[in-house]
Design brief:
three-stranded antiparallel sheet; 16% strand; five-stranded parallel sheet
């Protein structure tokens, strides 16, 4: 049986993780959080005291890391990373390491290996454009900057103003980077989540999957 992947891309705070997890549960697929993989690389770089601007060294490290998923949790070299990858300093590190082509090549290869082995709902910023451009269903989630900042602030406990500034900075880096830039695939379905509940977005995507014979 041919393996299936539903690609869900979009900027920070658009609801990718919540929605992708919900779609995976609804359809009986496996959830793949590509952003968590880059966060894990960022965490490993911080733990090892590496220069986040040294793409060559970071790339060498990324190729050696054993990053796996155990349900909804992620493991680095066999050990669960837990909430450490959600710390603000790791978020910043993940954004910085992800601009390096050597790091992206290592992570894209690992993501493709995972996707090839099963039915996945994969979320990130370049799943539909780089990792799995042949995915039969690609969704690009969006939301207003204010709503995205409000959601992220609710997760981190920071002020909405602080988070909004960080999101704007992250958007600039994601859209401006040379490799794996944030953009919607030409054949993706755009879904604005600003005024929708997570359940409404999940049902919309699940229904699209059913219409296309994916589930």
């Amino acid at each position: 049986m041919e393996q299936m992947v539903i690609a869900i891309d979009g900027p920070a705070g658009a609801g990718k993780s919540t929605v992708a997890q919900g779609v995976a549960r609804a359809l009986g697929f496996t959830y793949l959080d590509s952003g968590a993989m880059y966060r894990t690389v960022g965490l490993a770089a911080l733990d090892r005291g590496l220069d986040l601007a040294d793409g060559e060294r970071l790339g060498e490290m990324a190729w050696t890391l054993d990053i796996t998923f155990d349900g909804d949790s992620i493991r680095l070299d066999g050990a669960p990373v837990g909430g450490r990858i959600r710390a603000p300093e790791v978020t910043i590190a993940a954004s910085k390491v992800s601009v390096h082509p050597q790091v992206r090549q290592a992570m894209v290869k690992r993501q493709r290996e995972l996707i090839a082995a099963g039915n996945y709902v994969a979320e990130g910023r370049d799943i539909g454009t780089v990792v799995s451009p042949g995915a039969p269903l690609k969704v690009f989630l969006t939301a207003s900057e204010e709503e995205r900042a409000r959601r992220r602030a609710g997760e981190t406990g920071e002020s909405v103003a602080e988070v909004r500034e960080a999101i704007e900075d992250r958007d600039r880096r994601d859209r401006g980077r040379e490799h794996g830039a944030l953009r919607a695939a030409e054949d993706s379905v755009a879904v604005d989540t600003t005024n929708l509940s997570p359940d409404q977005v999940v049902e919309r995507i699940a229904e699209l999957a059913r219409q296309r014979g994916i589930a």
